[in-house]
Amino acid sequence: MSRQRSKARSLAVQAIYQWQMAGQPVSEILAHFLAEHAGKKLDEAYLRDLLQGVGGQLARIDEALAQDLDRDIEQVDPVERAILRIAGYELLEHPEIPYRVVINEAVELAKVFGAEKGHRYVNGVLDKAARRLRPLEMAAQGS
Fold first, then answer.
1. Is the pTM of this model over 0.85?
2. The CATH number of 3-134 is which of 3.30.70.3040, 3.40.50.11890, 1.10.940.10, 3.60.15.10?
3. Span 18-33, pLDDT tens digits
């Protein structure tokens, strides 16, 4: 994936974290992040898609992840929860992005922003979720 899309994901983690913690409207957080990073190399359309997608489909995303979690989604570390929600949205709504890319990007974000071993948790949850949400792709990859 492009560096601009990776940057969009990184900002999305921070924005979703802020949304989860402060409860501000997604539209306000998005406007703030776009203004703060204007002119910088990032995929603004993808950042917008991620924030609006997670905000708009939260119940569907949480439901899709629930059976692969070992606790209620609200009990997951807030940073890891934001990462899981973004990756869950991508698995559900962006079949053009290979599941391996979604998982790899999420694991890298968890290494940067998450708890010391949070990337392992994120990897395990998303690996299970991808098997359910992308069975044809998994079968084609021989996973």
1. yes
2. 1.10.940.10
3. 999 998 999 999 999 8
